[in-house]
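Dear Dr. H.,

I hope your travels went smoothly. While you were away I took the liberty of generating a structure for the chain from your last submission, since the lab meeting agenda had it listed for discussion. I wanted you to have the full record in hand beforehand rather than looking at slides cold. The sequence, exactly as received, is reproduced here:
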Amino acid sequence: MRQTPKGSTGASARRPANRLRALAWLTLLMGLFWASMAAAVGLPSTYPGCDTRNVAVPFGGSVNVDLSACHFFGLGVVSTPPVHGTATEGDVPPVDSYNYNHNNSTPAGGGTDQFVVLDDNSDFITVNVTISAPTSSIVVSPASLPTLTAGTPFTQTLTSTGGTAPYTYSLSAGTLPVGTSLNSGGVVSGTPTQRGGYSFSVRSQDSLAAFAIKSYSGTVQNPTLTLVPASATAIQGVAFSQALSTTGGVAPHTYLLETGTFPAGISISSAGVVSGTTAAASGNYPVTLRVTDFSTGPGSYFELEPFTLTVSPPPSVSIAVAPASVSEDGATNLTYTVTRSLNLSSPTTVNITTTGTATAGTDYTGGVATLVIPGGATTATITINPSVDGTVEADETVTLTAAAGAGYTVGAPASATGTLLNDDVPSASIAVAPAAVAEDGATNLVYTVTLDQASVSATSVNFTVGGTATNGTDYATITSPLVIPAGNTTGTITVNPTADAANEADETATLTLSAGAGYTVGVPASATGTILNDDLPNLTINDVTASEGNAGITNFTFTVSLSAPAGPGGVGFDIATANGTATAGVDYVASTITGQTIPAGSSTYTFTVQVNGDVLNEPSETYFVNVTNVTGAVVVDGQGVGTIVNDDPLPSLSINDVTVLEGNAGTVNAVFTVTLSAASAQTVGTNFATSD
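The corresponding predicted structure, in token form, is as follows:
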């Protein structure tokens, strides 16, 4: 039986009601359990004003809903929970109220929510909640997202103001466009893959936990598809293949012939490869292709794209080179350009032959047997890179020729020749032999210029002339340059001294190599030859004869004489005594002097030898004075003879008388003494005989 509402008048009426409430508590608990299982099958509450209650709550806030007038034994459970928050008991049983807590979810800009509580009769108490818009001062930008297109990469950075940085971002409600994502830094990025509408909300929270909810909605637009390439050329009788691609939309794309007809032998695959071999007549074959992308959304998305296949006879190819020549040791290469007369979408492989005087792999690198002109281009290049070397050689050539092959004809010019210019030159050095010659002699100074490598052309070597000798006066005139013939490594310059009678100093002729074209100056770069003066005075020394004397020293003076005054630098020599029959230290005082000079302009030099006097009778004796190591003069007589004349008389000789007794028997010696009146330096011999 349905209970009557609370609110009867009078104290006597309230006391029975309180007793009944206390007595019925257990019954209520059982009823609540049954009501929780009843799946909300009751009717609106009959308690006055309790079938519907309206409350308001701030965004993210909570409110207590007072339902104390809507039950007699206590409120029941929540039979229908709220969508955007929670509803929980607001006090201890018997329950008089419920708390609603908004969970910061949608609706982002405020809105409504609803939940149902059962009264103690298991009837509905419907609570309508009005959720106010957030009151945060945080403002999220941009106000709306830029246009999103399926298959087109997208990125947008969200920013916030009005709060305390840094901000963190998270998805609050809804779903991002398929293929995109949101990171905590507020960057929405990715490539949308689904066409159609989208709606989502982003929560921006600052460092103090204040937040704002920003909603975005819009439509991911259909893509724009572009076929690449829109045309191609197939060569009659040559296998053709062209892979089509599509910009825009979501890959992979599929392809289908919609209208038109390809030439016989040509077809298109679903992956967009147009291929085959055709012998169809030359001309254009336009078709329409259905190109479908891989995006999702309402139905499938495709576009009809025009495509034209041109059938053409084989193109011609020609070849040229630029620059026409390069240095072999330089940074520039020979670039050969092969040109195709048609711009085809498919590649053409051109056969190349190589000739010329240069050797591949030795003189250069980069040679090829084939060259591919790619689809979409009319040219391709071959780079010949000269090899650096130090060899002096002739200029060399590299000739590339377009040879016959499939899918093209050979046009004009069919070949091109590039030249590798030799930039290596020999190094030149110089030497002279003999190193010195007499000015009046038959021998010349010969200067030899040597190249370290033979040149393939004549080499003109420049030189300068120096030294103390005068070109054209002291020797026959010589002039620069010296020309060394091609293939040779040496050349000579002859200095022919001029004969004269002047007594002069030795003179030099110095030839020094100087810079020029076709060679470098090496080491040695200069050579000096000497022209020896051979117009010299004659040198002689006299002989001296004198008595020795009986005591003391007698000076023997020798004179070294020149037939003409000494020339520049004078005449140098060494002078010394030497024994003959006379003995140094006994008969004379030995003397040796080195480095003596007769000065320029003088013609004599004296040298004194001391001779010892004695009283001995002796033969005349000799010694020598030798002049050696002479410079600046011609030695005619380099030895003087000193003769020591004996001036002591011969001694007298006498013999004494002897008287002896003869004795009575045997023999008795009678000794006679032969005596000189004075000692002699020589042996004295005499004959003797006995007589009666």
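Two observations you may find useful: The longest strand covers residues 211-221. The CA atoms of residues 244 and 272 lie 5 Å apart.

With kind regards,
E. W.
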